[in-house]
Amino acid sequence: MSHVIKRNNVKIEGSGEKTIIFAPGFGCDQTVWQDVKNAFLGDNKVILFDYVGIGNSDIESYDPEKYHTLSGYVQDLLDICSALDLEKTIFVGHSVSSMIGMLASIKKPAYFSTLIMIGPSPCYLNDPPSYYGGFEKDDLLGLLDMMEKNYIGWANMFASTLVNDPNRHSLSKDLEDRFCSTDPVIARQFAEATFFADNRGDLSKVSVPSLIMQCSNDIIAPDEVGEYLLNQLPNSDLKRLIATGHCPHMSHPEETIQVIRQYLEEFSVTDTN
Protein backbone atom coordinates (compact mmCIF):
# COMPACT_ATOMS: atom_id res chain seq x y z
CA MET A 1 0.00 0.00 0.00
CA SER A 2 2.72 2.48 0.97
CA HIS A 3 4.47 1.90 -2.36
CA VAL A 4 1.35 2.83 -4.31
CA ILE A 5 0.66 5.87 -2.15
CA LYS A 6 4.20 7.15 -2.69
CA ARG A 7 4.37 6.20 -6.35
CA ASN A 8 1.28 8.18 -7.26
CA ASN A 9 1.55 10.84 -4.55
CA VAL A 10 -1.92 9.93 -3.28
CA LYS A 11 -3.61 12.48 -1.02
CA ILE A 12 -6.81 11.98 0.97
CA GLU A 13 -8.86 14.93 2.20
CA GLY A 14 -12.28 15.48 3.70
CA SER A 15 -14.66 12.99 5.24
CA GLY A 16 -17.99 11.47 4.39
CA GLU A 17 -19.69 8.25 3.39
CA LYS A 18 -19.01 8.78 -0.31
CA THR A 19 -15.61 8.93 -1.96
CA ILE A 20 -14.62 10.97 -5.00
CA ILE A 21 -11.45 10.43 -7.02
CA PHE A 22 -10.31 13.40 -9.08
CA ALA A 23 -7.99 12.39 -11.93
CA PRO A 24 -6.02 15.05 -13.86
CA GLY A 25 -5.70 15.24 -17.62
CA PHE A 26 -2.61 14.89 -19.78
CA GLY A 27 0.46 16.75 -18.51
CA CYS A 28 -1.17 17.99 -15.30
CA ASP A 29 -0.92 17.06 -11.64
CA GLN A 30 -3.55 16.93 -8.92
CA THR A 31 -3.32 20.65 -8.11
CA VAL A 32 -5.51 21.44 -11.15
CA TRP A 33 -8.47 20.37 -9.01
CA GLN A 34 -7.85 22.92 -6.27
CA ASP A 35 -10.84 25.16 -7.08
CA VAL A 36 -13.22 22.25 -7.62
CA LYS A 37 -12.36 19.68 -4.97
CA ASN A 38 -12.76 22.11 -2.07
CA ALA A 39 -16.49 22.30 -2.82
CA PHE A 40 -16.85 18.58 -2.12
CA LEU A 41 -14.77 18.21 1.04
CA GLY A 42 -17.63 18.89 3.44
CA ASP A 43 -19.60 15.73 2.73
CA ASN A 44 -17.19 13.52 0.78
CA LYS A 45 -13.83 11.88 1.12
CA VAL A 46 -11.71 13.25 -1.72
CA ILE A 47 -8.78 11.36 -3.26
CA LEU A 48 -6.18 13.09 -5.41
CA PHE A 49 -3.17 11.58 -7.16
CA ASP A 50 -0.50 12.19 -9.80
CA TYR A 51 0.31 9.93 -12.70
CA VAL A 52 3.85 8.53 -12.60
CA GLY A 53 6.30 10.99 -14.11
CA ILE A 54 4.13 14.02 -13.35
CA GLY A 55 3.85 16.32 -10.32
CA ASN A 56 5.23 14.86 -7.10
CA SER A 57 4.91 11.24 -8.16
CA ASP A 58 7.86 8.88 -7.79
CA ILE A 59 9.63 9.40 -11.11
CA GLU A 60 11.89 6.44 -10.33
CA SER A 61 8.83 4.25 -10.84
CA TYR A 62 8.48 5.34 -14.45
CA ASP A 63 8.78 2.39 -16.84
CA PRO A 64 8.65 3.25 -20.58
CA GLU A 65 7.40 -0.23 -21.42
CA LYS A 66 4.59 -0.14 -18.85
CA TYR A 67 3.39 3.33 -19.82
CA HIS A 68 3.70 2.84 -23.56
CA THR A 69 -0.10 2.55 -23.66
CA LEU A 70 -2.90 3.70 -21.37
CA SER A 71 -3.05 0.24 -19.78
CA GLY A 72 -0.17 1.15 -17.45
CA TYR A 73 -2.06 4.16 -16.15
CA VAL A 74 -5.23 2.09 -15.83
CA GLN A 75 -3.39 -0.43 -13.68
CA ASP A 76 -2.05 2.33 -11.44
CA LEU A 77 -5.58 3.63 -10.87
CA LEU A 78 -6.73 0.11 -9.98
CA ASP A 79 -3.76 -0.20 -7.63
CA ILE A 80 -4.84 2.99 -5.85
CA CYS A 81 -8.41 1.71 -5.47
CA SER A 82 -7.11 -1.61 -4.14
CA ALA A 83 -4.61 0.00 -1.74
CA LEU A 84 -7.34 2.22 -0.27
CA ASP A 85 -9.92 -0.60 -0.25
CA LEU A 86 -12.39 1.48 -2.25
CA GLU A 87 -15.80 0.52 -3.57
CA LYS A 88 -18.59 2.41 -5.35
CA THR A 89 -16.32 5.42 -5.83
CA ILE A 90 -17.35 8.50 -7.81
CA PHE A 91 -14.68 8.97 -10.46
CA VAL A 92 -14.15 12.43 -11.98
CA GLY A 93 -11.65 12.37 -14.84
CA HIS A 94 -10.48 15.13 -17.12
CA SER A 95 -9.67 14.44 -20.78
CA VAL A 96 -7.58 11.25 -21.12
CA SER A 97 -8.36 10.38 -17.50
CA SER A 98 -11.96 9.86 -18.60
CA MET A 99 -10.84 6.91 -20.70
CA ILE A 100 -8.42 5.68 -18.04
CA GLY A 101 -11.24 5.65 -15.50
CA MET A 102 -13.60 4.03 -17.98
CA LEU A 103 -11.13 1.22 -18.76
CA ALA A 104 -10.53 0.71 -15.03
CA SER A 105 -14.28 0.43 -14.46
CA ILE A 106 -14.52 -2.29 -17.11
CA LYS A 107 -11.85 -4.32 -15.34
CA LYS A 108 -13.15 -3.72 -11.80
CA PRO A 109 -16.68 -2.26 -11.85
CA ALA A 110 -17.14 -2.76 -8.09
CA TYR A 111 -14.65 0.04 -7.44
CA PHE A 112 -16.88 2.63 -9.14
CA SER A 113 -20.43 3.92 -8.73
CA THR A 114 -20.35 6.48 -11.54
CA LEU A 115 -17.98 8.04 -14.06
CA ILE A 116 -17.93 11.80 -14.60
CA MET A 117 -16.00 12.57 -17.77
CA ILE A 118 -14.85 16.11 -18.49
CA GLY A 119 -13.90 16.64 -22.14
CA PRO A 120 -13.59 12.92 -22.93
CA SER A 121 -12.65 11.38 -26.26
CA PRO A 122 -12.47 7.67 -27.09
CA CYS A 123 -10.44 8.40 -30.25
CA TYR A 124 -8.79 11.63 -31.37
CA LEU A 125 -8.24 10.51 -34.96
CA ASN A 126 -10.81 11.07 -37.68
CA ASP A 127 -12.15 7.83 -39.11
CA PRO A 128 -14.41 8.84 -42.00
CA PRO A 129 -17.17 8.57 -42.79
CA SER A 130 -18.55 7.29 -39.47
CA TYR A 131 -16.40 9.07 -36.89
CA TYR A 132 -14.99 12.56 -36.40
CA GLY A 133 -12.38 12.76 -33.65
CA GLY A 134 -11.03 16.19 -34.58
CA PHE A 135 -7.53 15.31 -35.82
CA GLU A 136 -5.87 13.84 -38.86
CA LYS A 137 -2.95 11.45 -38.30
CA ASP A 138 -0.50 13.95 -39.79
CA ASP A 139 -1.69 16.56 -37.26
CA LEU A 140 -0.85 14.28 -34.35
CA LEU A 141 2.46 13.17 -35.82
CA GLY A 142 3.36 16.85 -36.25
CA LEU A 143 2.43 17.46 -32.62
CA LEU A 144 4.75 14.69 -31.43
CA ASP A 145 7.52 15.90 -33.73
CA MET A 146 7.24 19.40 -32.29
CA MET A 147 7.39 18.01 -28.75
CA GLU A 148 10.67 16.34 -29.63
CA LYS A 149 12.27 19.25 -31.49
CA ASN A 150 10.92 22.30 -29.63
CA TYR A 151 9.29 21.29 -26.37
CA ILE A 152 8.93 24.85 -25.04
CA GLY A 153 7.30 25.97 -28.28
CA TRP A 154 4.99 22.97 -28.18
CA ALA A 155 4.00 23.70 -24.56
CA ASN A 156 3.09 27.27 -25.48
CA MET A 157 1.09 26.21 -28.53
CA PHE A 158 -0.71 23.31 -26.89
CA ALA A 159 -1.67 25.32 -23.80
CA SER A 160 -3.25 27.98 -26.01
CA THR A 161 -5.10 25.28 -27.97
CA LEU A 162 -6.53 23.78 -24.78
CA VAL A 163 -7.76 27.11 -23.45
CA ASN A 164 -8.94 28.38 -26.86
CA ASP A 165 -9.56 31.87 -25.48
CA PRO A 166 -7.06 34.73 -26.06
CA ASN A 167 -8.51 36.58 -23.07
CA ARG A 168 -7.38 33.86 -20.66
CA HIS A 169 -3.64 34.34 -20.96
CA SER A 170 -2.98 33.52 -17.30
CA LEU A 171 -4.63 30.12 -17.66
CA SER A 172 -2.64 29.38 -20.82
CA LYS A 173 0.55 30.34 -18.96
CA ASP A 174 -0.43 28.11 -16.02
CA LEU A 175 -0.88 25.11 -18.33
CA GLU A 176 2.31 25.91 -20.21
CA ASP A 177 4.27 25.97 -16.94
CA ARG A 178 2.77 22.62 -15.95
CA PHE A 179 3.79 21.02 -19.23
CA CYS A 180 7.29 22.47 -18.92
CA SER A 181 7.71 20.99 -15.44
CA THR A 182 7.35 17.48 -16.88
CA ASP A 183 10.23 15.52 -18.41
CA PRO A 184 9.83 15.99 -22.19
CA VAL A 185 10.52 12.31 -22.89
CA ILE A 186 7.81 11.19 -20.45
CA ALA A 187 5.40 13.84 -21.74
CA ARG A 188 5.91 12.74 -25.34
CA GLN A 189 5.31 9.09 -24.53
CA PHE A 190 2.16 9.96 -22.55
CA ALA A 191 1.00 12.09 -25.50
CA GLU A 192 1.54 9.20 -27.90
CA ALA A 193 -0.36 6.80 -25.62
CA THR A 194 -3.17 9.35 -25.32
CA PHE A 195 -3.63 10.64 -28.84
CA PHE A 196 -3.23 7.33 -30.68
CA ALA A 197 -5.49 5.35 -28.36
CA ASP A 198 -8.76 4.08 -29.80
CA ASN A 199 -11.23 3.02 -27.13
CA ARG A 200 -14.38 3.12 -29.24
CA GLY A 201 -14.65 -0.67 -29.04
CA ASP A 202 -14.64 -0.54 -25.23
CA LEU A 203 -17.62 1.78 -24.82
CA SER A 204 -20.25 -0.95 -24.98
CA LYS A 205 -18.50 -2.84 -22.16
CA VAL A 206 -19.08 -0.10 -19.59
CA SER A 207 -21.58 -1.04 -16.89
CA VAL A 208 -21.14 2.04 -14.69
CA PRO A 209 -23.43 5.06 -15.27
CA SER A 210 -21.60 8.04 -16.73
CA LEU A 211 -21.89 11.79 -17.28
CA ILE A 212 -20.26 13.33 -20.34
CA MET A 213 -19.39 16.99 -19.76
CA GLN A 214 -18.99 18.65 -23.16
CA CYS A 215 -17.32 22.08 -23.29
CA SER A 216 -18.11 24.75 -25.85
CA ASN A 217 -15.52 25.42 -28.57
CA ASP A 218 -13.39 22.50 -27.46
CA ILE A 219 -10.79 21.80 -30.15
CA ILE A 220 -9.52 18.67 -28.38
CA ALA A 221 -12.92 17.01 -27.91
CA PRO A 222 -15.41 18.61 -30.35
CA ASP A 223 -19.20 18.37 -30.13
CA GLU A 224 -19.33 15.37 -32.46
CA VAL A 225 -17.29 13.35 -29.96
CA GLY A 226 -19.69 14.12 -27.13
CA GLU A 227 -22.66 13.03 -29.27
CA TYR A 228 -20.84 9.85 -30.27
CA LEU A 229 -20.15 8.98 -26.65
CA LEU A 230 -23.76 9.61 -25.67
CA ASN A 231 -24.93 7.21 -28.39
CA GLN A 232 -22.35 4.51 -27.63
CA LEU A 233 -22.00 4.59 -23.84
CA PRO A 234 -24.70 2.62 -22.02
CA ASN A 235 -26.55 4.54 -19.29
CA SER A 236 -24.88 7.85 -20.09
CA ASP A 237 -25.96 11.49 -19.94
CA LEU A 238 -24.54 14.45 -21.85
CA LYS A 239 -24.29 17.95 -20.36
CA ARG A 240 -23.19 20.79 -22.58
CA LEU A 241 -21.30 23.48 -20.69
CA ILE A 242 -21.21 27.20 -21.24
CA ALA A 243 -17.51 26.94 -20.38
CA THR A 244 -15.24 27.18 -23.43
CA GLY A 245 -12.01 25.35 -24.16
CA HIS A 246 -10.89 22.03 -22.73
CA CYS A 247 -10.24 22.73 -19.04
CA PRO A 248 -13.47 23.92 -17.38
CA HIS A 249 -12.32 22.79 -13.93
CA MET A 250 -9.66 25.50 -14.20
CA SER A 251 -11.36 28.14 -16.36
CA HIS A 252 -14.93 27.79 -15.07
CA PRO A 253 -14.78 25.98 -11.71
CA GLU A 254 -18.18 27.29 -10.53
CA GLU A 255 -20.05 25.79 -13.47
CA THR A 256 -18.02 22.59 -13.21
CA ILE A 257 -18.94 22.22 -9.54
CA GLN A 258 -22.60 22.97 -10.23
CA VAL A 259 -22.89 20.40 -13.02
CA ILE A 260 -21.14 17.68 -11.00
CA ARG A 261 -23.28 18.39 -7.92
CA GLN A 262 -26.51 18.36 -9.90
CA TYR A 263 -25.65 15.06 -11.56
CA LEU A 264 -24.66 13.42 -8.28
CA GLU A 265 -27.88 14.58 -6.62
CA GLU A 266 -29.99 13.25 -9.48
CA PHE A 267 -27.97 10.03 -9.64
CA SER A 268 -28.40 9.54 -5.88
CA VAL A 269 -32.17 9.88 -6.19
CA THR A 270 -32.28 7.47 -9.15
CA ASP A 271 -29.95 5.03 -7.42
CA THR A 272 -32.19 4.77 -4.36
CA ASN A 273 -35.41 4.21 -6.32
Automatic annotation (TrEMBL):
It comes from the Bacteria. SUPFAM superfamilies: alpha/beta-Hydrolases. Keywords: Hydrolase. The keyword Hydrolase applies. GO terms for molecular function: hydrolase activity. Residues 19-253 form the AB hydrolase-1 domain. PANTHER family: ESTERASE-RELATED (PTHR43039). This is Alpha/beta hydrolase. It comes from Metabacillus halosaccharovorans.
